[in-house]
Design a protein that fits this description.
It is a single chain. The protein is an alpha+beta fold. It folds into two domains: 264 residues, 2-Layer Sandwich (60s Ribosomal Protein L30, Chain: A), CATH 3.30.1330; 37 residues. It contains ten helices and ten strands.
Length: 307
């Protein structure tokens, strides 16, 4: 039996400022740790450190909210400057999620926070999450973030993560001669549980999604599935070392993965927005019909039981 293993290395970086050669900094930091860069490594980089290097920090006091942003902010209980930046960096507003209702009026907060009073203040300062289409993905609050940036500033995500990943990969090859895969990660809320996951928003050098839909399983049956989100799974793995608060590990190197190399961009695997909305509407309609039919059968069964 062949034993398979992956090695996962967290790579701390010095403070990144606009204009920093991020690829060079990653290579030098990996060398300093004694792990270096090898051919076939997968390098996961947080989008935030990329944004810092690209100078995508905005001073909050410089943001002038429009009347539209102020009205929406009042309705949603969000800072007006934040709504303005969300509107500027979104292709389309899809909806809003009442996070305060889920967290404040349930026992969930007791399990996800060690300081309930502090958590409640955070909830009250930003009661709704805006669900928007930013062009390359659906994101909460357009991917805008205030954590791990200087006070009074906010971080905007890169507008073309695939291009950025390709640029970092090319620069690492230039510096080391090694062909690696580069994945840009960002943190997004989970729809299954209260919490978040790190997902891939850009990739280069790796097939980000396996193409095994319909292939045979161990018993020869065609499988309804087999499409692994490889890039997302690698980001989730990297997040175990990166953390989200004060860990200061914005880069993770994963070594030992046998993956298919490719120049396919992550954006090619996105479900078209129009098709997604139609599927959701059809799904809601079918759900209503099924619930209606079940209610009718329940009444019929009840009447049969009486007679």
């Amino acid at each position: 039996m062949v034993v398979r293993k992956l090695e996962v290395f967290g790579i701390p970086l010095p403070e990144i400022t606009p204009g920093t050669d991020l690829a060079r900094t990653i290579v030098e930091s990996a060398n300093r740790l004694g792990i270096g860069i090898r051919d076939g490594d997968v390098i996961v980089v947080t989008s935030k450190v990329v944004s810092k290097a690209m100078g995508l920090l905005v001073k909050i006091s410089d943001v002038r909210p429009s009347t539209k942003a102020r009205i929406i902010a009042r309705i949603l209980g969000k800072p007006a400057w934040e709504v303005e930046l969300i509107l500027r960096n979104s292709k389309r507003i899809l909806g809003a999620f009442p996070a305060h209702m889920l967290l404040k009026h349930s026992t969930i907060l007791n399990y996800i926070s060690r300081d309930r009073d502090r958590a409640l203040k955070v909830i009250e300062s930003d009661r709704y999450l805006m669900i928007v289409d930013v062009g390359y993905r659906v994101a909460t609050d357009a991917g805008i973030d205030t954590s791990n940036v200087p006070s009074g500033y906010v971080c905007l995500p890169p507008s073309d993560p695939d291009r950025v990943a390709r640029g970092i990969r090319d620069r690492i090859r230039e510096l080391t001669g090694c062909d690696v895969a580069v994945i840009l990660s960002d943190t997004e809320g989970s729809v299954l549980r209260v919490g978040s996951l790190d997902i891939a928003i850009g990739a280069s050098g790796i097939v980000p999604v396996t193409a095994k839909f319909g292939e045979s399983d161990r018993f020869g049956k065609s499988k309804y599935g087999g499409v692994d989100l490889i890039a997302d799974e690698l980001c989730a793995t990297a997040a175990l070392l990166m953390g989200q608060t004060g860990e200061s590990i914005p880069v993770v190197l994963i070594r030992g993965l046998n993956y298919e190399r490719s120049n396919l961009e992550l954006g090619r695997f996105r479900v078209p927005r129009g098709l997604l909305l139609k599927a959701l509407m059809l799904g809601i309609l079918i759900s209503v019909v099924i619930r209606f039919l079940l209610a009718i059968f329940s009444v019929v069964d009840l009447l049969r039981g009486r007679w």
